[in-house]
Amino acid sequence: MTYEPVIGVEVHAQLHTQTKLFCGCPTSFGLPPNTQVCPVCLGLPGSLPVLNQQAVEMAVRTGLALNCELSPTNQFSRKNYFYPDLPKGYQISQYDLPICGPGWLEISVNDKKKRVRITRAHLEEDAGKNVHEEGAEGSHVDLNRAGTPLLEIVTEPDLFSSEEVDAYLKALRDLLVYLDVCDGNMEQGSFRCEPNVSIRPKGQQTLGTKVELKNINSFRYAKDALDYEISRQAELLDEGGKVQQETRLWNVQLGQTAVMRSKEGAHDYRYFPDPDLLPVSIDAEWIEELGGTIPEIPSARLQRFVKDYQLSEYDAGILTDSKELADYFEACVKLFAHPKTVSNWVTGELLRELHSSGVTPEDSPLKPERLVELLELVDSGTVSLKAARELFPELYSTDKTAEQVVKEKGLVQVSDEGTLQTIIEEVLAAHPAQVEQYRGGKEAVIGYLVGQVMKASKGKANPGKVNEMLKRSLTS
Amino acid sequence: MADISQKEVEHVAHLAKLDLTEPEKTLFGEQLSQILTFVEQLQEVSTEGVPLTSSVADQESFLREDLPRKGLSQEEALSNAPEANEGFFVVPKIIAK
Amino acid sequence: MALFKLTLKELQEKFTSGEITAGEIARAYLLRISQVEPKIKSYISLTPREDLLMNAQAIDDGLKAWRKTEPLMAMPLGIKDNICTKGMRTTCGSRMLETFVPPYDATVMTKFNAQKPLILGKTNLDEFAMGSSTEHSAFGPSRNPWNQQHIPGGSSGGSAAAVAADECVAALGSDTGGSIRQPAACCGVVGLKPTYGRVSRYGLVAFASSLDQIGPITKTVTDAAIMLNALVGHDPLDSTSAKRDFPDFTKSAKKKDIKKLVVGVPQEYFAEGLDPEVSEKIQDAIAVFEGIGGKIQEVTLPSTERAIATYYLIATAEASSNLARYDGVKYGFRAKECKELAEMYHSTRSQGFGPEVKRRIMLGTYALSAGYYDAFYAKAQAVRTLIQRDFEAVFQEVDFLVSPVMPTPAFRLGERLEDPLQMYLSDIYTIPASLAGLPAISLPCGHSSKGLPIGLQLMGRPFEENIVLRAAFAYEHATNWRTKRPIIRS
C-alpha cells in the first residue's frame, strides 16, 4: 500500500538572553557543574521567580515574524513531575495562555512555496542535565542549564515528507538566527526538534496514530529518523500490525528509532497557574515598539535586494543566505554605491576566501571599509580589474590597506597622460602600417595597437585610457 | 459521601511520590473521603461567569531586566546536598520503567 | 521591672537613651530563655550563647561610630523557622529540612539585619506551617504559656508562645489561613497579617503561595506597627510584592478614639459554633468601639460558609506543588540505602514528611489531578472571587470589620489531633481575610473562665493596615488586657 506521512514538529529554541528566564544567573554554556546557579534555579526553599523582560520581548518578536496572534494576557503555569534535573519538582511553562497563538511560516520545497501553520509558541524554563556515566553507581546532576529560557514552537500536522520537515526546520532556524533570538546551534542543544509522525493510506482523511521522535540534534538526523520511522510504520501496517502511540528515541549508531522509557508511569502533569507569577499584559504599544526592532526575514530581504539593487535572484539568494553576508554586502553598498560590482566581489572573491579559511562574514579579516577601498581604486583606474583580483588574497589575509598592497606589488596603473602619450607616440612611430590601415577605415586594428602600448608599459597602462588616447592621436 | 477508593488513594500517592503503609492508606482514604464530602458543598454555589482568582495581588507581574546577578558558589550550591561528587549532585541510578 | 517584661517600644527607648546596653539585653533574655524554654518549648534552634553575646558586643562597640540607632537595633527577636536565615538552620518544623542551612537570607531578614537586631532563635511551627496547634511539628509541640496543657495555636505557635512567655520581645510569624492571628489569640498577644503583597515572601518557605504572608507577633499594637515598618516595601525578588507607598505605621497607632470610623459586624461570624464565652467578649469589644466613637453597623458576608472548603482546596493544591522540591536530591533529608531513583523519591518523601503534610499533599494532588481539576480546584478559584467580592461590597460601607479570631479558646493538646476536619473548621474566622488578601490583626480582648486568652480580630481594606492599627490601638488603650501577663509556674 502507498502511505502518506503526516508530520508536525515541536521545536525548543533556547533564547539567547544573558540571564535565565526567572533569575539573574548567566546562561553561559560549558562551565563547571553547578556554578551558574542561585537559590531560584536550584529550587531552594523560599526562593521565587521573576520574569526576564528580554525573554518576553524575544518571544514577541518571534511571534511577529511567524505571523502569530499575540496573546494580550500571559499566564505561567506549573507542569508538575519528578525528575532529578527538575529542581522544583515542576517546570514553569505556559499552558492555556501561550504568548504566541496561531501563525504560519512560509517554506519552499523544490521551488514550491507552502505555508506551515504554527499552532502556538510558548515560553518555558529548561531543565538541568543528568549525566549518566558508564559503570558509575548513580547519576550526576548539573543544574547550570536549569531555568534557561526556551521558546517552544509547535506546528500543525502540515508537513508531508521528511524534505518538507527539513525545509521547515532550516527556515525556522534561519529565521530565529536572523531575529537574533537564538544561536541555532543544534549540537549544543539550543535548537532542539521533536517531530511527531503518523502515516495513513494515500487519500485517507483521518490521521493515523502518531509517534514522537526525540534525541535529534542535527538536520541530518531529523531527516534520517523520519525516513526510518515512516518506513517502519509502513512495514508494520503492511504486516497487519498497529502503530503504538509512544515516544521513540533516534539512535544514530544503529540508524533506528527505539521506544523510550517514560518519565512517569501515568502522565498527569496537574498544570495550574503559578501563584508566584502574576499575569503579564502585552499591549499593542509594546508590540508595535518591538515590531520596529525586527530585522527583515530572509525571503523579504532577497526580494528587496532584487528590486532595490537590481541583482539577479541567484545573486540575491547567495547574499541573503546568511544574515551576516547580507549585512556585509549592505555595509559595502553604503560606502560604495555600485551594488552590482559589490555583489560580484562579495559572492566571488570574498566568499571564496571565507570558505577556504572557514570564517564567517562577521569575522572576516577583510572589513567592508577595506574592500570598498579596493573597489574605489579599480573604479578610479588606479588599478586594473585583473590586478585587483590578483592582489585580493593578500589584501584578505593581511591588515594592509588596498593602496599599500597595490603600491608594494607595483600594480599601480599608469593613467598619467604625459607618460602614456610618450609611449603611444613611440608605438605609432614603430607601426606605420597599422596606423595607415586604421586611418583607411579598418578601425579594428586599434586593438593591436592597444596591445602594443600595454606591452611597452609592461602591463601597467590603464587600457581604457590608452584606448581613448590612441583614438585621439589617430584621428588628429 | 464522596468515597475515595483504595485505588485512587494509591494513584494519588503515586503522583505525589509517597509510599503509604496499608494502615495509612485506609486512614487517609477515610479522612480524604470525609474532607472531600465537606468540600463538595462548593458544587452548590453558582459560579457561572465568575472569573477564577489565582492571585489576589492587584497588579501585574513586573519584569526583570536581563542583567546578571551574583549567584551561589559551587560549594554553597552543594552545601546541603545529601550526596555530591566532583561538583555534581549525585542520585541513585535511574532505572527505566 | 525585669528587662524581659518590657514592650518593644519601652525596650527601644531604654536602649536608645543609653540606659541599657545590647549586652544587658542579651544576657537578660538568655537567662529568661534558660528558665522558661524547658516548659514552653518555643524554639527549634537558639542562637548559640557566645554568638549572641558577640553580636550584642558588636552593637555596643559600634554604637559610637554609627552615632544613630535603628528602631530594631539590639531588639531581641524570634524568627519563625520557615523564614530562611543565612547560615542558620531553617527546618520548617520538618524532618525533611532538619539539617537544612540556607545559603541565603529571606528579604525580611536582609531588612532586619540592616538594623542590627539580636536574633535569639528560630521558633517552632507546625510542619511547613500546616496546622493550628504546633502539634504537627516534627520537633514536638510548643506549650501555651497561660496553661501548658493547652496548645499555643498554630502554625506560628512558637512565635506567639515566645512573645507571651517573654522569651523574645517580638517575633516574626507567617499567616496562610490564620497562622499569625490564631496563635496570637491563643497566647494573648498581638498578631498582624499584612495585606497580601505588602511584605516580601522571598525566603519564606512556601506553603500556599497565593496566601502566605509574613507578619509580626508582638506584645502591643504599637510594637506591631514598629515591626511592620521594618518589614514592608517593594521587593524586586518577589513578583507578587506590591509596588506601593507605605506610611509610617507607628503614626497610625496614636489616637485613642475611632471617631468617624464605621465598624462592620459580619453576622456570619457570630453564627452557630461560636463558644458563648468568646461571643460575649467580642460583644463587649463591639461596645467598647461604640464607646470610643465608632459607628456600629451589621453587615453580611454570605460566602463565609464556603471559605473553609475553598481554602483547603486552594492551599493544598498549591502546597502539593510547592512541596514537590523535597525529593532528596539537592538538600534536606534523603532516605538511606535506596538502590534506584524511584525508590529514593518514595522513601525520602514518605519518611521525611509527617502525616498532616502527607494528608494535605494527597488532597492537593487529588484536587489538581486529571478529571477533578474543574470540580475542585477551578471551582474553589471561582468561589474565592465571590468571597473577595463580598468584602469589596461591605467595605463600601464600613472601614473595618470586627470578629472573633477562633470559635473557642485554645484547646487542649491532643484534643483534635485525630480529627483533621474538626481542626480545619476552627480556622473559619481567619480564612476569609486570607483568601481575600486583606490586612487583619488579632489582639487580646479578655479571658475565658479557665483563664485562657480570647482574641479579637479586626479586618481592613487592602493596604489599609493604618486603619486596622488605629482601631486596634484605640481599643487596646480603652481596655487593659495588654497588662495581663501569664504566670509560668515551675
Largest sheet of chain B: 2 strands, antiparallel
Task: List unreliable stretches of 5+ residues of chain B.
Answer: none
* Widest β-sheet, arrangement of strands of chain A: 5-6-9-1-10-11-12-13
CATH fold-level label of the domain at 6-43 in chain B: Histone, subunit A
Q: Based on the coordinates given, report the CATH architecture of the domain at 6-43 in chain B.
A: Orthogonal Bundle
Question: N-to-C SSE series of chain A?
Answer: EHEEEEEEEEHEEHEEEEHHHHHHHHHHHH
What global shape of chain B is seen?
A: flat
Total helical segments of chain B: 3
- Please report the total strand number of chain B as a whole number: 2
How is this structure best summarized?
The complex is a heterotrimer of chains A (476), B (97) and C (490). With 476 residues, chain A is α+β, with helices and mostly antiparallel strands. Chain A has helices at 53-65, 162-178, 219-238, 284-291, 298-309, 313-320, 323-335, 339-357, 368-379, 385-397, 402-408, 417-430, 432-439, 446-456, 463-475, and strands at 3-14, 73-74, 77-80, 90-93, 103-109, 112-125, 129-132, 138-142, 149-155, 191-201, 211-214, 246-251, 256-259, 272-273, 280-281.
Question: Would you give an account of this structure?
Answer:
- The complex is a heterotrimer of chains A (476), B (97) and C (490).
- Chain A is built from 15 helices and 15 strands.
- Chain A is an alpha+beta fold and 476 residues long.
- Chain A has three domains: 3-288, no CATH class; 298-408, no CATH class; 417-475, Arc Repressor Mutant, subunit A.
- In chain A, the strands form four sheets. Chain A has an eight-stranded mixed beta sheet with strand order 5-6-9-1-10-11-12-13.
- In chain A, helix 3 links the parallel strand 11 (211-214) and strand 12 (246-251).
- The N and C termini of chain A lie far apart (85 Å).
- The mean pLDDT of chain A is 90.
- By secondary structure, chain B is mainly alpha-helical.
- In chain B, strands 1-2 form a two-stranded antiparallel sheet.
- The radius of gyration of chain B is 22 Å and the shape is flat.
- Helices cover 38% and strands 13% of the residues of chain C.
- Chain C has 15 helices and eleven strands.
- In chain C, helix 5 runs parallel beside helix 6 (181-187), helix 9 crosses helix 11 and helix 9 (307-322) crosses helix 12.
- Chain C is globular, with a radius of gyration of 21 Å.
- The mean pLDDT of chain C is 96.
- The chains are: A alpha+beta (476), B mainly alpha (97), C alpha/beta (490).
- Chains in contact: A-B, A-C, B-C.
- Chain A binds chain C through residues 39, 42-51, 78, 80, 82, 84, 87-90, 139, 141, 143, 268, 270, 272, 274-278, and chain C through 82-84, 90, 92, 97, 100, 102-104, 106, 201-206, 208-210, 236-240, 317-318, 320-321, 323-327, 329-331, 341, 345, 365, 368-370, 373, 377.
